[in-house]
Every structure is written in structure tokens, then in C-alpha cells.
Amino acid sequence: MTGSIQSAATLSADLDTDCDVCVIGSGAGGATVAAGLAERGLSVVILEEGGHRTRADFKGNEGDNVPMLYQERGARATADLAVSILQGRTVGGGTTVNWTTCFRTPDRIFAHWADRYGMPYSAAAFEPHFAAIEERLNIAPWQEERVNANNRVLLDGARRLGMEASILRRNVRGCADSGQCGTGCPYDAKQSMLVTYVQDAVGAGARLFANARAERIEVANGRAVAVHAVAMEDHRDRATARRLVIRPRVVVAAGGAINSPALLLRSGLTEGPVGLRTMLHPVVAITGDYPQPIEGWAGAPQSVASHAHIDRGPDRVGYFLETAPIQPMLAATAMPVFGTAQRDRMRTLGHVASLIAVCADGLTPEETGGRVSLRTDGRIRVDYPIAPALVEAWRDAHRTLARLHFAAGATRAASMHLEPVLMNSEADLPLLDAAPYGALRHAVFSAHQLGGCVFGREAETSVVDPDLRHWHVGNLFVVDGSVFPTGLGVNPSESIYAFAHRAREAIAAAV
Question: Distance between CA 71 and CA 409 in Å, rounded?
Fold first, then answer.
């Protein structure tokens, strides 16, 4: 039996239908769950707020693709505008626009969760789930000879400093080195949910409605009885007059951290710390100018990483090092300079490399993360107070990134402060010590959102149990990055895939 993908924007009348399972979201968690359940013969309806875009739409034009594929047209940010948040909004979710980096959940994180949050399952228990998704998504190490110049900076700099660095694993098949991962792969080489588990689910009979925004889950007598959604216009973030009511036996919230907590809040499901412990894996960057061409917009965007600084002790925030692609629009909007200075900087963009430090937040005693809440008009609000431990980590990370640039041959390194710190050699690193750090002092980004519906051993201190079932609504599961109570210290996509793959069994049993 073959299912369908339909834009809710094309509905000519309201829709009221039932099914075994309604999955809200088609990203790493939602698509993985939906495929497994549909293949078991269950009737599945998937609701996706974003549009259904395919390779024919991915033309590499940032100005068109970023508003089309990202939450809030690429402008999502914390309430104080201190942290820019990149989050997918399309069929396939964040997997359609991520940079293909795949890590298993580290053993140290499983151990921390077991100690602090009652996670009863070890890394070994997830081995078959990691193995299954790695086979389906063709997750494999990138070839060192194909590492582009931007990533080569990190690899060469680390080796010259005697610092650990390694080639990453990527979920690709037949990659053309286009460098367009962040705006949708025009070759279907990225093995995102769009071309894998979404297709598996639809092939097994699932119905997917794109442009369908889930507004609330209706609950009666401790059971989810309906999902109420509104059809959205296909090219604008505006509701139409059409409504969808899905009446399932089981509901799976998989809209991602930020959206899933907001959905629960709109539904009146406020028991436990809903929206709290929101982690952003906050990112800081240092750019380097090189005599040779870098052209960071071409080639695999991420293929090298270093975890040499991930474990800095129990009271200090660890961070891992990667590169960020240098697409022109992304670079221009991220720069803390404007006017003539921005124009001059863009002229040299082909010789600029960008190194980033991604902080593993939520693992030190003083960090409680941020909060997702609802504004008075119903829109989502994200607050993320900057803990002193993060400020210390950003200072340390900036020095590390600058050292790497100079070790790799940079002629200049620059911070992304409002008044950039310009360094011509390692001798200038002390200039960073005098620079201000914290909210709105320098650029901070987030491409990994976690927490907000965290799992735990007790209903009072968590939203779902370790099997991802809601503590107070027996037929509601949350299956996305919002369930993780801390940062991971690695890119989160493979962790979400594996947790979703494991959750299939419990969800099927609840139908």
C-alpha cells in the first residue's frame, strides 16, 4: 500500500480523519518513527509545518532557500537576540538542511544521564539501533583526500599543534561536493529524512500533510484524543481557513526542541518542567585570512572535528571544534560589520576560513539551560541566560581557534565581536583577554537545539520517562531532541535517529 504527500494548503475543505498514530514533525525523530510504524502495518498520519521541497527546489540560492527551509525564515533567535538559532522547517526537518555530520551518543553522556537522570539504558543497549540507522542512511567516514580547504585548516592546524582531530562520518551517498547541504541537496545525495525514512513511511502507506501546523493536542481523561492543526500557505507563514483534526490512538510529538515544548504548552500540558532545560550548543567562531584560496562555500561543509577540549573538568564547559561553511549570504549576515567594512570583507571572502567551537551546555552544576515559553500572542519565546561558565568557555575557545588558524598558516585571525579583535600572530592572542564576552558582545549561534521535554526517572523533574512516554498522558510520546536533558558534545542527529529507532517498539505496543 502506498501513502501520499499532500500540501494542506491545497485542501478544499476541512479534514477530519482517524489513524493509529499521528506523528507531528517529519525530521530526525518523526520520520524515523513513522517509517517503522508504517512498516508494521499501522496507519500513520504525519503533520509537517513546513512545505514539501525536493531537489527541484534546491537551486543553491540562499536568498530563496533559507526563508523557504528554516524556522521564522532563518531569523529565529533568543528573545534578547543574543543567540541566532538555525532550525529546519520543511519536510525532513533539520536533516534536510544540516551539514551531514554524524556521531553516536558518547559513552560519557550515557554515563552522565544514568547518574543524574535515571537513564536505565547503556550505550550498548543502543548498539543495534545505531547500526540499523547507519546502514539505512549510509553513514560512513569521509575520505581525507576530499577534505576541502576550509576543513583542511582545522586538520592541518590541529596536527601541527599536536591536537586530536579526526575525519567525520557523513550520511551521504554519491556526494557531489556541491557545498549546498545547508540549503537542500540538489542531487539527493544527502541521506536526509526527505529521501530515506519519509519515503519509507509513505511507501508503507503513511499519509503526510505538509504545510500543516499542529496547534494543540486535545486530551481527555489522561489520553490524547485528537490533534488539531491548521493549514498554512505554501510560501508564507500564514494560516489559511482550513483546519485538520486527526483522531489517533497514539500521538508522537516530534517537532524538535523549541517546537515540541511549545506544542505541549499550547495544549495545556504544563506538568513537569515543560520548556525548561533548553540547550542550544552555543557556537562561537574565529575567522582566518589565508594567502591561498579557501572558497569555503564549496565541498563537504563539515568533514573534520576535534574533541580535544570536550572534557575540561566537572565545573568548566567543554567544547568541540568544527568548521562552518562560508556561503556568501550566511557570511554577510553573520559578520559584525556593516557598510563599507562589510563590503571590503566580502571582497576577500574566497580567502577566509571559519573555525567554530560548539559548547556542550547543561553538563556543569551552574548551567540550567534556557526556557521555551509562549508570548501573549501565542508565538514562541526562547530565553537563554548566559552562565559564567559559558563566558569562560567562549574566552578559552577563541584562543584555541585563533591558535589553530595561525598553525595552519593564516596571516590574520579575527573574532566576531561587535568591535572585532584582529590578530596578526599568536603574539596578539592577549588582545582577546581584554575583549568583552557574553550576551550581545559577540556573535553566538545555535544549530543544535536540545531539551525542553526532558526524560528522567521522576515525573516531578521530567516530562517523559526514559522510554519517551509522557508521564501524564499515556498515549503521548515525545521523540526528538527535546528529550535530552543536557547537551551532547557532538552533533545530535544520529542520537535522535537512534532514540527514535528504539522508541518504535514502545509506540507500536501502545497502539
Answer: 37
Domain 1-71+85-138+175-278+450-511: CATH architecture, name and number where available: 3-Layer(bba) Sandwich (3.50)
| Mean pLDDT value of segment 89-103 | 98
Residues 263, 22: Cα–Cα separation, whole Å: 14
pLDDT band for 335, please (50, 70, 90 cuts): confident
pLDDT recorded at residue 252: 99
- Computed from CA positions of residues 260, 254, 501, 194, in that sequence, does the dihedral angle turn out positive or negative? negative
- DSSP secondary structure string for all residues of 286-342: EEEE-SS---TTSS-S--EEB-TTS---TTS--EEEEE----HHHHHHH-S--HHHH
Distance CA 352, CA 345 (A): 9
Q: Can you tell me the distance from the alpha carbon of 204 to that of 41, in angstroms, rounded to the nearest whole number?
A: 8
Distance CA 134, CA 111 (A): 23
Domain spans, the chain:
1-71+85-138+175-278+450-511, 142-172+282-446
Give me the percent of the chain exceeding a pLDDT of 90. 94
Angle (CA) 15-73-3 rounded to 5° is: 35
Contacting residues for 431 by C-beta, under 8 A, at least 6 apart:
421, 422, 423
Backbone angles phi, psi at 328, to 5 degrees: -55, -45
Rounded to the nearest integer, the mean pLDDT of the chain is 96
Q: Over the stretch 439-493, which tens digit does the pLDDT of each residue have?
A: 999 999 999 999 999 999 999 999 999 999 999 999 999 999 999 999 999 999 9
Residue 236 predicted with pLDDT over 90: no
pTM above 0.85, yes or no: yes
List the beta strands (DSSP E) in 149-256. 166-167, 169-171, 207-210, 212-220, 223-232, 239-253
Alpha carbon 206 to its chain's center: 25
- The Cβ of residue 449 has, within 10 Å, a number of other Cβ atoms equal to 28
Is pLDDT of 1 > 80?
Answer: no
Per-residue CA distances from 273 to 478, 481, 488 (Å): 14, 15, 20
Residues 6+ apart with CB under 8 A from 473: 217, 219, 222, 223, 224, 269
> Position of cell 496507519?
43
